[in-house]
Amino acid sequence: MLENLNKELNKKDKEIILSVSDLVIKFDLRGKDLTAIRKISLDLYKGENLAIVGESGSGKSVFTKSFMGLLDKNGWIDNGSINFDNKNLAKFETEKDWLDVRGGKIAMIFQDPMTALNPLKKIGMQVQEAVELHQKIKGEKAKEITLKLLEDVGIPFPKKRYNQYPHEFSGGMRQRVVIAIAMACKPEVLICDEPTTALDVTIQAQILNLIKDMQKKYSLTVVFITHDLGVVANVADRIAVMYAGDIIEIGKSEEIFYNPQHPYTWALLSSLPQLGEKGEDLYAIDGTPPSLFKEIKGDAFAPRNPRALKIDFIKRPPYFEVSKTHKARTWLLHPDAPKVELPSAIKKLHEHFGGGKSE
Ligand SMILES: Nc1ncnc2c1ncn2[C@@H]1O[C@H](COP(=O)(O)OP(=O)(O)OP(=O)(O)O)[C@@H](O)[C@H]1O
């Protein structure tokens, strides 16, 4: 499955659709600066599905909200650029600057579909308003497109559903409506922030499939945010692992699953419930992430890493290249680093998923 996805990705021309360089985002919290994003650089490829994975508070939402000018009022871009459509989004200042991009070229869906829906308005009208606004079409033609969109996102009996209100829809169906609204804007990039976290497992799988279908059908670029690596195994072409406001490892899905390099990625993978033996307690990562109010020295994960080296507490590791498509910020990849034994769960992972070493 993953192999096929990656072959497909290799075939594609790797055109960069959005490029982030040295991005730093800060918040003012009662007069003190909190650094939520610590100098991230990332290229997003056209048509790919990039998953951003990390614990709560690692900066996944803040990072991607900055692509749409949706940072809270006490937050700002302190350094760096976000290049998209020949513009530097980091320099946008007014709401007018964002008109074209937000909801148009870049759209976002969230965990709770109700945040995007008006409980007092019929579903059909909510989708149709987006069609009218972004496609500049009115009346019957807009309604036709709306009904087709509802059908496309898997809502049965669209004519009947058009006249219903959000409370008449299940959680999964509401998320489908939100996806229809996003697609009505014909976005180039769709950011999905934990879109399936509030749904039960079977519905989760259906929504993941729907996002995959939309990605193919509309040549969408998808950024999929989740705290659960298990969710992305079958949807993501690439995975970026975030910790304390930084991407500490990035690679193709199979590289992250079969040849992970950063001890934090090991820890995340080790806590996958799929790997637990019957009756065994689920692995939990000891300790807590560092305070973002202070400057972080060295590898931010070092205090929680039983395999940390001395240098991990002193100097921030650079990225070391594992392959052309895979890099990780860990001193363990330095040629002089001692060889450490992989955690047992990671060895089991190889057995479980049957993967081999990546290039
Ligand atoms: N308005 C704000 N003011 C102060 N700090 C903020 C604000 N918004 C976010 N932060 C901080 O920025 C950091 C990153 O938050 P973010 O929501 O991006 O994390 P996340 O990885 O998406 O986690 P979650 O899954 O819980 O949303 C956190 O420490 C958070 O407390």
TrEMBL record:
Keywords: ATP-binding, Cell membrane, Membrane, Nucleotide-binding, Transport
Gene Ontology terms for molecular function: ATP binding; ATP hydrolysis activity
Domain ABC transporter: 18-269
SMART domains, alphabetized: AAA (SM00382)
InterPro entries membership: AAA+_ATPase (IPR003593), ABC_Ni/Peptide_Import (IPR050388), ABC_transporter-like_ATP-bd (IPR003439), ABC_transporter-like_CS (IPR017871), Oligopep_ABC_C (IPR013563), P-loop_NTPase (IPR027417)
Subcellular location: Cell membrane
GO term, biological process aspect, one: peptide transport
Membrane topology, record value: Peripheral membrane protein
Annotated Gene Ontology cellular component terms: plasma membrane
Record Gene3D superfamilies: P-loop containing nucleotide triphosphate hydrolases
A Pfam match: oligo_HPY
PANTHER family given in the database record: DIPEPTIDE TRANSPORT ATP-BINDING PROTEIN DPPD, OLIGOPEPTIDE TRANSPORT ATP-BINDING PROTEIN APPD
Family: Belongs to the ABC transporter superfamily.
Protein name: ABC transporter ATP-binding protein
Species for this entry: Helicovermis profundi
